[in-house]
Structures are given as C-alpha cells and as structure tokens.
Amino acid sequence: MSNASLLTVFILMGLPHTPGLDALLFGVFLVVYVLTVLGNLLILGRTISFHSRVAQLYFFHFLGVTECFLYTIMSYDRYLAISYPLRYTRMMSGHSCALLATSTWLSGSLHSAVQTILTFHLPYCGPNRIQHYLCDAPPILKLACADTSATEIVIFLASGCFLLILLSYVSIVRSILRIRTSEGRHRAFQTCASHCIVVLC
Description:
Keywords: Cell membrane, Membrane, Sensory transduction, Transducer, Transmembrane, Transmembrane helix. The chain has helices at 21-42, 50-83, 88-91, 94-120, 137-141, 149-158, 160-177, 182-200.
C-alpha cells in the first residue's frame, strides 16, 4: 500500500480558453443580455400585429412544451439508470438518446403548431385588449366568441408530462427503497437529485 494522501479538495479553474478570449466572451454575453432586456421591454404595453402574435404564441409554447418533454425524457432516463443499472448503457445508447432528443423537439413543435392553429382559427369579435404581458393561449381564448374546448384539450395534454414525471419518480423511489445498503441508496439518490431539483424549480 502506498503512502500517498487522497485528494479531498478540487479547484475549479473555469472554462479552458486562451487568455485573450475573456474580452470576447464578455462581449458576447453582454450583447445577449442587452438583447434580452430590450426584448422584454418591447413586449410591455405594446400593440402587436396578428402575425407577431402568432409567432410569439408558437415560440413561447414550442420552447415551454419542449422543455417539459425533455424533463419527462430525463426522468425516464433516471428511472432506467436506477431500476436497471446493468442494462442502462444498452438501453440508453447514443442512438436512443439522439432519437429521444429529436422526438422531444419534433413533438414540441407539432404540439405548439396545433395549439397555435387552433387558437388563431377561432373567431374573435369582442374587445382586443389582453390582460397579459405576452400572447399566451388562455388570455387569448377568453376573447374568443366560439367554443374553445378543442384548444383547451390540446393545452391540457401538455400537462400530462407532469404525470409521467411523477410516475417515473414514484417508480424511482420504489426502486431506491429496495436497495439493501444505505450507501447504495445514497448513490441512487445522488443519481436523480439534480434532475429532481431542476423539475421542482
């Protein structure tokens, strides 16, 4: 047995880069930040055209629903990692991960397109003021003078992600409780703790 000491502290050096890259990265992040603030200022209290409303609703729901689908896939991934640790690498190969990631983006795009089309094919004959800071479906649907149940069902379908995530974590907790050693349970909990925190946030 060697007489070497074990490392207990690690030092994070930041992103590996050449020394002249600091100013460039600062400039890039500054431009992104300024554009974000300007974009947020532009949506407050403004008249918005029909096409801009359609684009805003589509992209708002596309990004939101895709994020929900990604969280669902991540919870399934954690379920497989904890419940089937020996078969995990075969079940979640690089090809499977690419297929799942692509399917979340495509299904998020499809869901958002269907919701946007259903929302803007409704007749709007009442007031044109929306008590919201962006064009989201529920405030727009309140202004429609027709049956909005089809659009509401499409919106509700996206909330099924929460139920799938909850189901995955119930299965994960059951699998963790079946682990005999406390060290094994602790390692299994660490495997899914970061995803749990992200979903809760």
